[in-house]
Amino acid sequence: MPAPEPGSPLPPFRPSLSLERTRFAVDLPDASTATVDIDHMAGRASLYRDDRHVQTADMPVRFSLGSDGIEVAASRYGMQRIHLISANGSQRRLDPAPGTPEHWRAQLSRRRPRIGRALAAGAVIVLAVNLILLAPQLLEMVTHLPLWADRFTPFVSPIDLPVWANTALTIAAALAGIERALTFRHHRLLDAEADGIES
Fold this sequence. Notes:
The chain has 199 residues and is an alpha+beta fold. The protein has helices at residues 101-111, 113-143, 146-149, 163-182, 192-198, and strands spanning 21-27, 33-39, 44-49, 52-58, 61-65, 68-75, 78-85, 91-93, 95-96.
């Protein structure tokens, strides 16, 4: 899809496209509103000011707003960063627009905090289990490559799961990665499995 023309109006957000797109907004000190429309499929972000297109760029990107700026970075699972950076160094995360997955997830945590906490804890458990069970198998696979095996003794994993179990763990890790992205949580080690699926 081509980038919007400068000055073109902000199109309505369609929840049916929420797997491909998302949107965030923030009120600026000059009483205008900045909206960032994210196209996950194209890896691009579009900045709108008062519902008029200003700029489109590949992510990660920092949109300039005079002395302030908006930093945007995303993965295939969701946003990693969408913050307004003020001239004094203070940061504020933009608010998810109604109809977006991030808005739905934030509402769930507000209305049903126990369910929200349970989902967050479940995602951590799933990723920790994946790290424990899949990491030795991946290490075995890597050390059996000729580049390693010709020089060193290959590692033999003590864990040997059937294909269906590995597939289920991979799918569960992807879902856990989505949950953590929707709540802006990321840990370099814990989310390594989800990051690996993405690449």
